[in-house]
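Sanity check. The docking grid for 2-acetamido-2-deoxy-beta-D-glucopyranose depends on where the pocket ends up, so I'm generating a full predicted complex first rather than guessing from homology. Inputs follow.
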Amino acid sequence: MATTSPPPPLLFLLLLLLLFFFTTPTTSDSEVDILLTFKSSIEDPTGALSGWSPIKTHFCNWTGIACSESSSPSPSVASVDLHSLKLSGDISSSICQLSQLTGLNLADNQFNQPIPLRLSDCITLVTLNLSTNQLWGTIPNQIFQLSSLQVLDLSGNRIQGLIPVSLGSLETLQVLNLGSNLFSGSVNPAVFVTLSQLVHLDLSQNPSLASELPSSIGKLGKLKRVFLQNSGFYGGIPESLLGLPGLEVLDLSQNNLTGDLPLGFGLELPNLVSVDLSQNNLSGSFPTDVCHGKALAELSLHDNSFTGSVPNTIVNCSRLQRFQVQDNGFDGEFPSGLWSLPEIRIIRAENNRFSGELPDLAVAPSHLEQVQIDNNSFTGRIPQGLGLIQTIYRFSASFNDFSGSLPQNFCASPAMSIINLSHNSLSGSIPDLMNCKRLVSLYLADNSFTGKIPSSIAHLPVLTYIDLSSNKLSGEIPQEIQYMKLALFNVSYNQLSGSVPSTLISGLPASFLQGNPDLCGPGLPNQCDMPSNRQSSKASRLVLAAIVVSFVAGFILLAAGLFVVYRRFQTKSTKVGRKSVFFYPLNISEEQILVALNEMNTIGRGPFGKAYVVQLRGGELVAVKKLVNSCKLSLRTVKAEIKILAKARHKNLTKLLGFCYSESEVLIIYEYLQKGSLGDVLCQPSFLLEWGDRLKIALGTAKGLAYLHRDYVPHILHRDLKSNNILLDAGFEPRITGFGIDRIIGEASYNSSMASELSCHCYIAPELVCTKKPTELMDVYSFGVILLELITGRPAERPASMDSLDIVKWVRRKINMTNGAVQLLDPNICNSAQQEMLAALELALRCTSVMPEKRPTMDEAVRSLQSLYP
Ligand SMILES: *[C@@H]1O[C@H](CO)[C@@H](O)[C@H](O)[C@H]1NC(C)=O
Ligand SMILES: *[C@@H]1O[C@H](CO)[C@@H](O)[C@H](O)[C@H]1NC(C)=O
Ligand SMILES: *[C@@H]1O[C@H](CO)[C@@H](O)[C@H](O)[C@H]1NC(C)=O
Ligand SMILES: *[C@@H]1O[C@H](CO)[C@@H](O)[C@H](O)[C@H]1NC(C)=O
Ligand SMILES: *[C@@H]1O[C@H](CO)[C@@H](O)[C@H](O)[C@H]1NC(C)=O
Ligand SMILES: *[C@@H]1O[C@H](CO)[C@@H](O)[C@H](O)[C@H]1NC(C)=O
Ligand SMILES: *[C@@H]1O[C@H](CO)[C@@H](O)[C@H](O)[C@H]1NC(C)=O
Ligand SMILES: *[C@@H]1O[C@H](CO)[C@@H](O)[C@H](O)[C@H]1NC(C)=O
Ligand SMILES: *[C@@H]1O[C@H](CO)[C@@H](O)[C@H](O)[C@H]1NC(C)=O
Ligand SMILES: *[C@@H]1O[C@H](CO)[C@@H](O)[C@H](O)[C@H]1NC(C)=O
Ligand SMILES: *[C@@H]1O[C@H](CO)[C@@H](O)[C@H](O)[C@H]1NC(C)=O
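Predicted complex below; grid placement will be based on this.
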């Protein structure tokens, strides 16, 4: 790699000559030339360096240049900082001719080359930052001649090979970041022996390393931050690590570390703010007094191999905020002092074998936010003070041996959003849930709770996942629960009785109610025949209908009013500030498009606006989607996003041909397919499509989505997938349209349009109500709904004429009956396809699982569907 043939003498002479010219007259003239030479080998697609021109401004005012304030007659360049400018091309070492250059930062660009050897000429350099590029090859030894270097950041590249021992010659180094590269082999401890000034060390995310932890790190007395996570480290934690009194952050997670902790771990790390040992294979127990600071003297007496002097101050962990040791094999008493540390925020110890009891937690003002101690052997009671901690948002302690009853206030913290106490031995009744207005998940399954389900549960506004299964709860299910937006309500295997609120039955799979022999209701083994019940539910249905009707009427009036106002306004402003961009040659003008957008040409309407079909001059048709630009996004922003969408090319995606922009709306031009959409086809009274065609539609759709989710960069979420957005060509090959609209109109406007959409929400994954962040698994849910439509031959909304259910709920209800699955299949398809259709049904059920993590990815869906092809 690092072999260069010596330059031919002639070239060398020329170089000298050049050098001579550069360094002679006034320094500033030559500095200008040096900078321009450096720029000339760089590709600058966004024109970020277009201001680098001696005519425009003095070079000290150029983008990224800082000059030294020295008293010398003319200023000279002290640092060049060109990070995040989308630059590529060649990094020319000509920059090293700047005689006072101390800083060079080219981070976060797209340089794709080895580290230039001749950067070694920049002998004045103090900071070198080449992070987040696409640099490759090994680290050239020449770099180690930069003897003043204090900061070296090469992280986020594709640098390979061993971490060179000669790195040790950079004796002034304070920050060394080699993280997120492809370094391999073992780390030689000799590297660190001389780096005595090091404060920040990062070798993380180099999964190809396979090395013991270099014990010499423990000699670097100034170290504050050590990041070695996910880098193939194995073996024990060296005792020398204890000798770092300044250490603030230690991350050794996701390695292959084994063995016990060195005795006294934590005792000599008084400044520790964050320690992460998670996901290793560490074992043994923690010194119980690890953060009490009491038993220090005794500990040292027991430890003969303990070198170093016994500190005479009592050490505590008064700064510790994060303690993460989950997914290891630790056992013994959990260090109880941790719970009362003044700054502690996060304690994660799940999946170990810790034992002991939790203290009451009610003492000092606490900052505790997150406690995860699932799957250990903790005993005793749930802390009485839990509800008093104002900051805590997660307390999960499932799979332990906690017993006794829940404290009355267990859910009183205003921030609490996840409580998981399943699989313990808790008893007594479930207290009323007060004040925890942010509670999303309540898991109390597999305990011995008795009494009723408190009806206060129904008044928690965002509660979405409730698992009370396998307890001894009795009484009725509170009626109020039917008005909650639940994705999970598992009360199976209790002793509940009485009638189940009707919408609860239709909204959730019956298996969530099973094992309660005394429950009754439609679809359950027992029917309840209490007339009063019927009437009240009929009455409530009437009230509901009335509300819906009046709401719809109101909305229509409002919309009509707005439309009139909008039309007036629009006719005035059509001409101003329009701009169109076509990605394909389209023989049509903006005006012609605008004229064609009338009622007669409407082909559909969705939450974001209408779609029209427009004829080009040559006779071909295109589809035009009209989006309201309610956030007044600029042309630049809109153009950048649409370009991203237009570049997504796949046989199963419709082409985006161009767009017209104005301040009030954006018109997107797509290719038009004659057959219309799957939605149209499904609604035809005689929907007859063979299974082979339906499978083709499903597979093509799955492939298109998988491309958007995985293959295309940046990954795109569809976020509005429904059968109306699947267009069909003459051979019933599908093409997905309408993806990524959120990117064009902005998140806020996307959300408000979706929320105001009155028609079917049945393609939308249930977790959308409680998570803000959209995920690909939400698209998978929508895909599952489309698959159900194809299998049953019924539309997603109101699949059966007398039913107000959506298709997912309808299918779930049917499937639990004898032969239910077979009865779901579209009877218009001949029996010979039954096996494939049942397999597709199973996939569709997985895709529409209420629990997102149970859904397959689109890649898996593609594979499943492919296996169904004969
Ligand atoms: C940089 O620009 C500012 C004003 O834009 C000016 O005052 C200053 O003198 C310039 N610096 C140099 C070194 O030319
Ligand atoms: C390197 O530059 C990037 C981008 O400016 C910055 O985020 C990073 O912190 C820098 N590295 C160091 C060690 O300062
Ligand atoms: C951990 O070590 C085992 C055996 O030594 C090896 O098979 C495994 O790949 C290692 N895991 C990691 C993450 O390095
Ligand atoms: C963890 O260590 C134990 C012995 O200490 C060993 O038997 C086991 O295979 C290790 N597990 C992994 C995943 O390396
Ligand atoms: C121990 O903690 C107390 C506060 O709890 C603090 O005042 C004291 O400075 C700490 N001692 C050390 C050695 O950090
Ligand atoms: C509990 O932790 C053990 C390791 O301590 C692990 O093997 C097991 O899978 C965990 N159980 C669950 C349910 O996560
Ligand atoms: C609660 O714990 C159980 C068992 O460990 C687990 O299956 C479930 O996913 C947990 N729920 C939440 C919300 O953490
Ligand atoms: C509901 O609870 C029962 C009993 O604990 C369990 O078998 C079933 O898997 C649970 N269902 C879900 C979706 O969590
Ligand atoms: C649903 O099916 C399960 C097992 O197939 C059965 O135990 C349960 O009683 C059924 N529920 C209803 C409502 O039919
Ligand atoms: C565009 O349409 C006009 C009139 O309809 C026609 O004369 C012209 O040839 C077309 N141009 C192209 C490139 O098709
Ligand atoms: C969808 O993709 C499949 C294979 O990737 C291809 O055979 C089919 O023609 C595509 N559909 C359309 C409409 O192009």
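Relevant for the grid: The CA atoms of residues 35 and 95 lie 7 Å apart.
Also worth noting: The longest strand covers residues 621-628.
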